[in-house]
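User: I want to check something. If I give you two sequences, will you return the structure for each one separately, not as a complex?

Assistant: Yes, each is folded on its own. Here is the first sequence with its structure:
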Amino acid sequence: MAAALRESTKEFQVLAYPSIPGYELLEEIGRGGMGIVYKARQLKLNRLVALKVLLPDLVHSSEKLTRFRIEAGAIARLQHPNIVQIFEVGETDGQPFIALELVEGGSLADKLGKPWSGEDAVALVEPLARAMDYAHERGIVHRDLKPANILLSKSEIRNLKPENEDNKGMLNLSPKITDFGLAKLLDRPGNPALYGAGASRRSQPRHRTGDRYSCFRHGSL
């Protein structure tokens, strides 16, 4: 019986946090097809960050390392209030990492399911459109824009009134686009394949590029 219990819980075993010099890892806050995101403290500046590392099984994959570096390069080009900011890129003992702005208001995916007024929906979507336009002007196409990749920051408060009380306070949040792991850098030849680990192929047009592709994803939100 003990053997059966060990087998049934194997997939839920928690691995020890990696050791990243200069950071104290506090808790795991996200996991995807390519990486793990930890809430961490950057010791020198005593600030909280989101520390993203590759999954241990992928650190020897040249394709995944290339995608990881493309993500870091894409975010580094973008300084916009509605795009998650990058603080540091590094590598220790063969483990690459990215230190990002920590956004603790959850994601847009967490807030779906309740009706919104048209005014409030526009107030949420408009800054996202401006952020995508900003990225396109700098030669970057996100290619994986979806509710789970839109984080909500409490740093900017809006006086929006939800259509019902269940949504009260939900839109007192500023949207921030994250996860540029599948980003296309239009000035970079040989960008990795359109689909990556963990990405859904649902209704994604294979040959769309530039503004047309992200407009498709933006409209599907």
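And separately, the second sequence with its own structure:
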Amino acid sequence: MKLNDKIKTFLSILALLLIGFILGFQTNRYLMKRHLQRMVETRVGPRLTDHLIRSLQLDEAQLSQVKPIVERYTSQLTSITRTSMQRRGQLIDSMHQEIKPLLKTEQIETLDKFSERIKRSRKKRGKKGRKKKRVQQE
């Protein structure tokens, strides 16, 4: 094999690796963007309603009572900006308190677990925000 052929082979392999890296990076970027968008939609908007209804496995009677309550709170949640995360938490807690009397025991447990996950994620976001502020101040 000539030196020229070896260089061509090497460059071809290098080009394929580079193309694979670029495509992998772009695919990962697209998937992460889509995942983050879904997370945001789940917190507020119609996906919150769908998620709660699916998670709690409401029967028809409960659905007819719970859905308007959730939608009312969801519209309020949507109007609140990111700067008022504490108010959002209060609204979610109020919504859960209003829904709980309409739920069965296992549904209340599911709702409580859901609430805990939301509270933990709020605390994590709060800690990250404080760290960023400290770094910027230094």
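Because they were folded independently, the notes below concern the second chain alone. The first helix runs from residue 3 to 43. The CA atoms of residues 86 and 122 lie 9 Å apart.
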